[in-house]
């Protein structure tokens, strides 16, 4: 997609709008599969939480991917998209036993990350295969909010609790068919990640009926020109070799599984917004757009970087702007960012807007959530309509209160 394609989409469908390039998604999926071509069995479960539009889920189904889900609702979305429940893994955190049982009844692979629920589920449903999520206590992620391998993380069963885990499995007679880990997002140091996998291999060897080992994901994508990212080809080469050796030692071939989200969809996404006002203050030039952190919260939530280009004036003179939204509190997308000269009415395109962007959008300030558009073979397809006031009011119930006379007066 080029600047003109994005401009045409914004003119046709209005702004703000999310746009996803299907060819980029397909290329990223093929790149991952190619990197692990030496693995005897490979499972790729797309992380639904990154971008849950049902058209995106159907695309991954066509590519041969399964789904990684974290809620009953994500599971149901996957089933509506036509994904085989056996191709869906469910890895919740802190949910009720009741929800886990509802998902298990749908034939989905369960992944349990705490001893309490593991014992309860195993006691009631010993014949249902279960994966266990291990915390290797290896920090491989970036921002503290997305690095989940530390000792005090709420995620996973500590490797120091393995004896207790094994005792629960023995006492309940439950079937553990997989082990799983996730160290966090934005993994750069392959050596650290591979060290974590050794911890997982050591744990996996303690279970005799495994069908797969799931290494999570968290692969870093580049956010700006010259940015570093996970060397997926090098990781694929090294981990595949080590995994095949584990299978030989284990005595049977099992599947190597991953659950990428950001890696597959982040770079495919663009968020386009129009500049409402250019405002000069004593020290700053603000470009105020027709959106806010209700549509794209990541910069305000944990300081994420999104490249911003003026697609209405891509060759213009570079000037410095703070790009801000219309929410009535601090609402900053970028501070003192160098962007081609901006005029009111220009369209700005935010890059890396495919993952964790629309999925975290809200109706804060009673604003409508934007449309989503999928670009494929040179054509744009609306995959979610822009909301209207009807959507805002849909589930609200009007209650007429009778106030006391003195209050009414």
TrEMBL record:
CDD domains: PLPDE_III_DapDC (cd06828)
EC number: 4.1.1.20
UniProt domain Orn/DAP/Arg decarboxylase 2 C-terminal: residue ranges: 18-354
Binding sites annotated in the UniProt record for pyridoxal 5'-phosphate: 218, 356
Binding site for substrate: 298, 302, 329, 356
Cofactor: pyridoxal 5'-phosphate
Keywords: Amino-acid biosynthesis, Decarboxylase, Lyase, Lysine biosynthesis, Pyridoxal phosphate
Catalytic activity: meso-2,6-diaminopimelate + H(+) = L-lysine + CO2
Pfam family, one: Orn_DAP_Arg_deC
Chain positions with N6-(pyridoxal phosphate)lysine modification: 49
SUPFAM superfamilies referenced in this protein's UniProt entry, alphabetically: Alanine racemase C-terminal domain-like, PLP-binding barrel
Lyase found in the keyword field: yes
Domain Orn/DAP/Arg decarboxylase 2 N-terminal: 25-266
Pathways involved: Amino-acid biosynthesis; L-lysine biosynthesis via DAP pathway; L-lysine from DL-2,6-diaminopimelate: step 1/1
Family: Belongs to the Orn/Lys/Arg decarboxylase class-II family. LysA subfamily.
Protein's recorded name: Diaminopimelate decarboxylase
Lineage, highest ranks first: Bacteria, Pseudomonadati, Bacteroidota, Flavobacteriia, Flavobacteriales
Gene name as annotated: lysA
